[in-house]
Amino acid sequence: MNELVLTANAGDGTISALSLDRAQGRLVPLATSGQLPGCGTFAVDQATGLVYAAYKGDPAGIATLRLDRASGELTEVRRRPAGGSLTYLSLAHEGRFLLGVSYAVGHAWVWPVTDGVIGEPVGEFSYRNLHCIVVDGTCVYAVSLGEDLIAQFTLSADGVLAPMEPLVAEAPRGSGPRHLILDGANAYLVTEFSGEVIRYARSADGPLTRAEAVDVVVPDSGLAPSAYGLDPKTEPLIWGADVHRAGPWLLSSERSSSIITSTALGEGGTLGEPTAYTPTEAQPRGFAVTADGEYAVAVGERSTHAALSRVEADGSLTLLDRAPIGAAANWVRILT
């Protein structure tokens, strides 16, 4: 079965579904559906075929949608309000809990989920400008762009959050930590303001320790470091966005230059140097990589297409196909 690609299209409040046809090197559009104003994040429970998608409004909330894998159609099941406009959603404990963060209100929630019904929060915490929350087993990590840190918790089987020791892993002051991925004994963080990828060593019981960093901005790009409150759309500023692993490469996106940078990974996941800078869709806030690391799918906030690329042996990306999706897409997930 071909992989299914889902993109959140914030501009028109929809989710697009495409089939990734490896044999033809194509993205085949299937369906674009949903009434989800400003949708910029969703989490997928593949075991149940349910998608939990955030939407903006008054109040902002989360919609539960049922996915038809064959057609790509999403059918709304129910909605519930959230305490703020959500920036990132993740599932934990085999879909029994949904975790989300709000950049706007600087708050995080843990909701229990039963048969697609999202209950009242059983856990909450706050940091300024929370941008990302990721889960691995019982370990939960939440990235605060506003406070330059990663908050670290454990999540019990009944949804109780407990702080790790230490509670936070620091990021460089003013770097603007944004998205985080977990990869065995390592975690990789991309920064929005300084244009770095930072590797954190991850201990057996979970806490992160900052290990090393590399600059992933295109050399001689003319982009200056950014800061909270500045607008990269009006001046040439660094605007880091997303990060994913593709086999022996770490891929990261930068929106001002519309580039995906490929950084070599050494033994034990250590950071090497960037080896390729590949143009992609305009203003690439989000992208995803297939589980085997062979293909990447990128979308852009100033584009109405998704780009399928092959990850080459030297880390560069070769464009294979572009397919139409909704407007201002900013989130991608690839389902096996």
Automatic annotation (TrEMBL):
| UniProt cross-references to Gene3D superfamilies, sorted A to Z | YVTN repeat-like/Quinoprotein amine dehydrogenase
Pfam families listed in its UniProt record:
Lactonase
Q: Which InterPro entries match?
A: Cycloisomerase_2, Haem_d1_sf, Lactonase_7-beta_prop, WD40/YVTN_repeat-like_dom_sf
Q: Which family does it belong to?
A: Belongs to the cycloisomerase 2 family.
The record's annotation in PANTHER family points to:
6-PHOSPHOGLUCONOLACTONASE, 6-PHOSPHOGLUCONOLACTONASE-RELATED
Name this polypeptide is given? Beta-propeller fold lactonase family protein
